[in-house]
Design brief:
By secondary structure, the chain is an alpha/beta fold. It is 38% helix and 22% strand. The chain has 22 helices and 18 strands. The strands form 4 sheets. A 7-stranded mixed β-sheet has the order 12-11-13-14-10-15-18, with helices on both faces. Strands 6-5-4-9-8-7 form a 6-stranded antiparallel β-sheet, covered by helices on one side.
């Protein structure tokens, strides 16, 4: 039996950690039972890659990374048949090559002897392990097998193969409830629904759409604000899949005539993800939309949402007040809620009492008291707010100002020593003032309560791996566009961004800090345009100007900004 050096000793010899750090990790290991390497990563003393490199030295096994270009299986040896995709992704293994009776396999944990033995039995040959990080390995697995392969396998298992399940019309709704529940609880359907959700999360989707049509059933993911078609399940699986989602969401599986809302949580690795589910009756059956609320994907920190430094400074100055009204404006899907949550997350403290009333509650934040509107039992924004004022609040968030009653309570709360956050549907920041007046709020109350107005939009970010420089001439751009450099970037397309050219989103903003001069303009009854003109003299950027800053720094393309900021 070979004698291996201990992993901790190797890390100390390499100068990566100190003895004190190792002892701290050993203490944590005794408490939590994790491997020593995981404890060191958790404590922040070392990265996963450093652990894997040290492990390769400890076990005298080769280490390969994605960037080396060697994490690519041989294409002519039918390795995907030798190690099926499902087994590969579940166990984090990737076959690299086969030579005679030896199979080279990339693994994340070479000390898992049971896995090595299972691989040996599955492949029918000796296993030659090499090591890679989990992240590199998963990416290589998806690149090799294809992202939709697992879907095809699961759909076949669930009855996609012709003849396995009787095809049904999308309008057929008279199947017995017992039969539907039985089908929804069969292992292949459970597995397929799990895979649909998991792939949506892995693709970074914000929503999953399951849509019935006359003769088909479609699956679409909304990624970076755009809906994309995915390989769709058979129409035979429509009712069992919908039933499975409704069971998970605690909806009434027998009710198909009325809209329903529900939700559930899933665990992916170490993180919990909320899914909010809506069922809508259509002429061909129920359309299901699952909203994915993944706090890990969208960090609720103002500094990480994409604001420019001067924009961040204005926002922090506006929300630092102990009282007043902070309004976020913009259309649905412009990231207003995310900005509000990030601001609350930054302000939350054990010395402050923070209350929110939302419809619906999108993210659960530790240390904040959140209330879900339930209009059917009389729990409206206005009713909740009245109760809030008897709950000794410091900070209040109101999901949306929809009517005069809610607006009046928000204004009154802001005037009586509370910091109030809310949203309003206007196209730009300065239009928030006439909108409040239209609702019925006198201008003198607006002057005394309003502290900050933020209008924002979400923009798609160029993929950093494939964006391409482009020279633009003055005659090629609209007259209102002013660029300081003729060299900007345009979308390319690569595997990393699914050949779209964009990956991820950022924000552009229009921010008005309501100081004495802006208050005076509101009190004088100036128009939204005149208020904005005064704000611009003080440094406020329009949405277009904010967007052009992102174009010049290479974050996005000119085409994207023109489509979002001008329309």
């Amino acid at each position: 039996m070979p004698q291996y050096k201990r992993l901790g000793d190797i890390l100390i010899v390499e100068g990566i950690i100190t003895e004190e750090q190792l002892n701290e990790a050993i203490s944590l290991q005794k408490k939590e039972g994790d491997r020593i390497g995981e404890c060191l990563v958790k404590l922040g003393y070392i990265s996963e890659e450093q652990i894997v490199i040290a492990l390769s030295k400890q076990l005298s096994l080769p280490y390969i990374s994605l960037s080396s270009g060697r994490l690519k299986p041989a294409s002519d040896q039918n390795l995907e048949e030798l190690i099926p995709h499902e087994f590969a992704i579940r166990n984090r293994v990737l076959p690299l090559s086969r030579s005679l009776n030896s199979l080279t396999v990339v693994v994340a944990n070479p000390l898992d002897l049971i896995l090595i033995d299972n691989l040996k039995k599955l492949a029918g040959c000796e296993i030659n392990p090499v090591i890679a990080t989990k992240e590199d390995l998963l990416e290589a697995i998806e690149a090799f097998y294809g992202k939709d392969k697992l879907f095809r396998d699961a759909m076949e298992a669930a009855g996609q193969v012709e003849g396995d399940i009787k095809e049904i019309s999308m309008e057929e709704t008279d199947l017995s409830l017992d039969k539907l529940i039985a089908q929804a609880q069969e292992a292949p359907i459970i597995k397929l629904v799990d895979l649909i959700i998991r792939q949506g999360i892995e693709e970074g989707a914000s929503d999953i759409h399951l849509e019935p049509h006359h003769d088909k059933f479609t699956l679409r993911y909304r990624i970076d604000g755009v809906l994309y078609d995915m390989p769709s399940p058979s129409t035979a699986l429509y009712l069992p899949i919908v039933s499975r989602v409704k069971i998970l969401s605690r909806m009434d599986i027998a009710e198909k005539r009325l809209p329903q809302d529900g939700g559930f949580m899933v665990k992916m690795g170490d993180r919990l993800i909320d899914l909010r589910v809506s069922a809508l009756p259509t002429i061909y059956g129920e359309k299901i939309v699952l909203r994915i609320l993944d706090k890990a994907r969208i960090p609720l920190e103002l500094s990480k949402l994409g604001f420019l430094p001067n924009e961040l400074e204005l926002i922090r100055k506006g929300v630092s007040s102990s009282y007043g009204l902070v309004l976020l404006t913009g259309p649905t899907g412009s990231g207003k809620s995310t900005t509000l949550y990030a601001a609350l997350n930054e302000l939350k403290s054990s010395t402050r009492n923070t209350l929110t009333v939302e419809d619906p509650v999108e993210y659960r934040i530790e240390g904040i008291n959140q209330v879900q509107v339930k209009a059917d039992i009389g729990l409206t924004f206005a009713n909740a707010l009245r109760c809030f004022l008897r709950q000794d609040p410091d900070i209040i968030l109101v999901g949306e100002v929809r009517d005069l009653e809610t607006a009046e309570i928000c204004i009154r709360s802001a005037l009586t020593g509370h910091l109030v956050f809310s949203t309003l549907h206007t196209n730009d920041a300065s239009s928030a003032v006439p909108r409040l007046i239209d609702i019925g709020i006198p201008s003198y109350l607006i002057v005394n309560s309003l502290r900050l107005i933020i209008s924002q939009r979400l923009i798609k970010k160029l993929c950093p791996l494939c964006k391409q420089p482009k020279e633009v001439k003055k005659e090629e751009i609209p007259p209102e566009v002013v660029l300081t450099s003729p060299i900007i970037y345009r979308a390319g397309g690569c595997e990393k961004c699914n050949f779209i050219g964009y990956k991820g989103r950022s924000v552009i903003t229009e921010i008005i800090l309501v100081d004495e001069e802006i208050k005076e303009a509101i009190g004088e009854g100036l128009t939204a345009r005149e208020i904005m003109a005064k704000a611009r003299k003080k440094g406020t950027l329009t949405l277009l100007e904010s967007g052009l800053k992102r174009v010049e720094e290479g974050t996005t393309s000119l085409e994207e900004i023109l489509s979002v900021a001008i329309g």
